[in-house]
Amino acid sequence: MAAKSSKDIRNESRFMVLRTVFAQHTVTRAQISAETALSPATVTTLVGELVEEGVLREAGQVSSQGGRPTTLFQANPGRGALLAVDVAETYVRVDLFDVSLARLDQERMELAPGAQTIETVAEHIRGCVETLLHRHPELEGDVLGAGISLPGQVDPVRGVDVFAPNWDWHEVPLCAALEEAVPVPVRVDNPLMALATGELWFGAGRRFRQFVSVNLGTGVGAGIIVDGQLLRGRGNSAGEWGHTTLIWNGRTCSCGRSGCVEAYVGVEGIRATLAEIAPEHELLEVPHHRDFIERLMRAEVAGDAAAQRALLRTGDYLAAGIGNLVNLLNPEHVSVLGWITRYAGAELHDRVRERIAQECLPGPSSTLSIEFTEADGEGVSLGMAVLALEAFLERVGLPSPSSALTPAPPASGGGSAPGWAVPHGGLAARRR
Amino acid sequence: MAAKSSKDIRNESRFMVLRTVFAQHTVTRAQISAETALSPATVTTLVGELVEEGVLREAGQVSSQGGRPTTLFQANPGRGALLAVDVAETYVRVDLFDVSLARLDQERMELAPGAQTIETVAEHIRGCVETLLHRHPELEGDVLGAGISLPGQVDPVRGVDVFAPNWDWHEVPLCAALEEAVPVPVRVDNPLMALATGELWFGAGRRFRQFVSVNLGTGVGAGIIVDGQLLRGRGNSAGEWGHTTLIWNGRTCSCGRSGCVEAYVGVEGIRATLAEIAPEHELLEVPHHRDFIERLMRAEVAGDAAAQRALLRTGDYLAAGIGNLVNLLNPEHVSVLGWITRYAGAELHDRVRERIAQECLPGPSSTLSIEFTEADGEGVSLGMAVLALEAFLERVGLPSPSSALTPAPPASGGGSAPGWAVPHGGLAARRR
């Protein structure tokens, strides 16, 4: 039940300084102070430490208001490189970033459909990394770390994948396998946390301290930002909005529950909606998720009534799901991201805009903004590069966490149902 | 986008010190330090300030481990009294507490059924307060503040009730009306925040930093605790779990949406479930909520099959609703509170226990504990006494907030639908 320490505060302040520099590219200490509300003395100290470590560098001078020249600072791309790995269900992609978070290069390999072992995944990552480093001999010895996003419920502290239903992974030890494949320290996480971290550093996080980033993809989920920090929950699985109820006892979801948001708003959910409207629709046979969504949008534009109805209905489901987040969390803002927005963002945006006021209580709705961002599909790797940078900074003694990682305890027993514990002797013992 | 300051930290630390003293009644500084992980020097300073203000007092000495005597501290009941007001839909109740949060006395008046004006409510409160103060002439001049809980979406910063659907209140100015009725500074809030504050000070808050307190009553809702602080959201309406979806397009809810959790788990929801099972059931005619629940439980025990099915189904709905909270927030713990637990707690507990593992993802479920607490119906007034104490401490310069209150901005325009704002020129402008 420990209180926050002044060290925690200092780390949070360092995060705000770094985020300001990265988002604005070139800034003076006075601008950082104005943006973060940190005192000039604090900013001077924090910038000084980061310059000393080589993460920031001086970038010339400008005249200040009083006419005296003042120093500009920027991230230092020469400090080294970061690997960002996005392991999806059908591909492995590795991006190379410099420390200023500029993307230098990219390599990608397809994964065969079906279940994967961690060894296969690690082998694919190794292949991409070797190709990239071969193309960039100048970086030898200068790769500072790797951030690897894997599907499922990833525990970054223990370095395991707790649960990845589509691959039947349970408690798979990731870091052990991956650190053989990648010659640098590895930080693992899941795509939801990666996307939300990117949004916190480069998107809505610059304007809001309480917001939700909704990810629309094959699966769907949310990143919850409270008081400027990403909420991870007890075991890094906060944000599983895709596995909250939209229709109790409704469609079977991949997680084993019924009626989850993902079963209506995820790609297979959209397909199921189309099948309910037009059981014989030709697009139902398109196996690949992006192809399916892209062709559904083309059909919608071409006047296909079933495609139009399926999209409207998806917008209705999405509005209800977002309304749930708004009513429960009363955020300042909702960002809608994820690859589906590249194809269907405008249509879903319009429908959600029509419906959202009816789905929210008047109080939370009156102060809310919602923004759809057409994703470029690179949000996960950007977020993993940020997390790899955070891990590197922590190793050199300059933590700047966008979220607090707490070690999860071992699974607790104490009851007949998994996960049920009644600490003080059960119900009757706590009559007050 | 301001960072936390060392003053914020000091206030949070003061909260932890106070909570430890109130929960343990009589403690040494060393015990406070052990419980809070604050340094002995910090504890000495914070306790010293609170003693100087008269909120804490010395309470004798004990021998420490080294044999030297060490001072015990406790809350100082002589410092003054607090009024805690619970305005429900059918009654107004005022409790008198001393500063050690011991309940001294209580007065209650019924409210006539139907819509109320703020003037009627204020008149009832005035009546109860005058009776209480007449019975306690020794407290003249010593009442430090009042905490008043009102139904609906209360904004404590502006002192208004944003939305109370059952009374058709919109933007009702509470503090202005209530400060005439009560001769001391007034702090307003809603019952959900009051109950969660009580749980944070005296219940699960002592053991967990990430938890949810679920309130089962006429209406239902949740208090969300993140990092040891109550989440209030942008406009103090976080936690409206009762107005998240259980069945999309399902039963009409009092809030105007369809299929909300409250429409299945709140009292009228339970009644609707019974009506679906047995449309002619005699209990459907019992108007008063507590009578209805009490008689439903008696019928269940007596073997009434419809009552039994209605309770089982309510347990299923409750398990799904709690599963949603667990999957979205991945808390360490869920406390189930509220007056319904006094009557139906054991039965709902058993059914939730049977069902919860199926409603939660494996990760969050493996580290979760759930506890039902049979409520004594006094949780709201206890929580409001705590909030009145917090407000008093803030006025004397010793803030100890269990949550951060941020002023809500005025309702924003900027779009055709209420509450829709697209800050940067809309969708296309943010392609990244």
From TrEMBL, chains A, B:
InterPro entries: ATPase_NBD, ROK, ROK_cs, WH-like_DNA-bd_sf, WH_DNA-bd_sf. It comes from the Bacteria. Residues 402-432 are annotated as: Disordered. It holds the Pfam family ROK. Belongs to the ROK (NagC/XylR) family. SUPFAM superfamilies: Actin-like ATPase domain (SSF53067), Winged helix' DNA-binding domain (SSF46785). This is ROK family protein.
